[in-house]
Amino acid sequence: MPLKASGKSANVLSVTSTITKTQEVIASPLSKLTMKVIEAAAPNAAKVLGGRVPVLLIDKRVHSLWAEAVNAAPFLADTQQLLLPIGEASKTLPTVETTLRSLARMGATRNDNYIAAIGGGSLLDTAGFIASVFHRGLPIVHFPTTLLAMMDATLGGKNGVNFLGNKNQVGSFYLPSLTVLDFAFMDTLGEEHLRNGLIEAVKMAFLAGPKELDALAGNIPKVLDGDKEATEKSVQQALRIKSSYISDDMYDHGKRQHLNFGHPAGHSIEAN
């Protein structure tokens, strides 16, 4: 029977999605990361990634420092690699288009492949956006290589590139299936990069309250001295706090906006 227009609004159809997605975070050296490790520590991610072949997107600077370790990693064996520009230079639509063309040429599909992204926050932002739009969504695994990326960019699926001079104006919400934290990457970070990450940790702790601030304060000098245990504790603390905001507000309509504390001022300083 054909639908007939009337003077009253009619609810023709309601569709409720049953799609849910989980991001899992594990700590593992690249040299020991295998699918068996992932199956034991991150079963949801293992189900998504099983049977798929990774395509590696990696920051050129990270590649120059860590190519040997990445090539030797059992989980990333025989992957095709695409190198992206360093830092903010990767966060452009031309970079996105170039990478999408490369993925198309190699015949990547959402049923056969996933993205493995290795780099700092800028690389992860760009790779996440690419993964979200190619074939309407390839799974993605993050390997953050800076302290700041471990504490912030890797969690929560906020992806974006810069456009018309504006920060992250084009982007998507698209959760990684898995984040792998390898604290060996901290060995090539200078003090400035460590402090950048710790500033984010302070912000998270500030939002959570005095107890979290006190706990972080005791770890800060150790992190700056290269203490891996203190670094791991600080990262876990920041991710735990951030996850409480994301779980309640994935799409940044309310509570999650508190995580932007300090960002507008920082982005303004960067722009000038």
* Mean pLDDT, all residues: 91
Distance between the termini: 62 Å
What is the makeup of the main sheet? 6 strands, parallel
Structural class: alpha/beta
Strands of the widest sheet, in order across it, are 1-8-5-4-2-3
Radius of gyration: 20 Å
The helix-strand sequence is EHHEHEHEHEHEEEHHHH
Proportion of residues in extended strands: 15-25%
How many distinct helices?
A: 10
**Helix percentage range:** 40-55%
Low-confidence stretches: none
Identify the overall geometry: globular
Total number of β-strand segments?
A: 8
Characterization of this structure:
By secondary structure, the chain is of the alpha/beta class. Helix content is 45%, strand content 17%. The chain is built from ten helices and eight strands. The chain has helices spanning 35-41, 43-49, 60-72, 93-105, 121-133, 147-153, 191-208, 210-224, 228-248, 263-271; strands at 24-27, 53-59, 80-84, 113-119, 140-144, 158-163, 166-173, 178-181. A six-stranded parallel β-sheet has the order 1-8-5-4-2-3. Strands 6-7 form a two-stranded antiparallel sheet. α5 (121-133) packs across α6 and α7 crosses α9 (228-248). The longest helix is centred in the C-terminal third of the chain and has 21 residues, at 228-248. It starts with 23 loop residues before the first strand and ends with a helix. The mean pLDDT is 91.
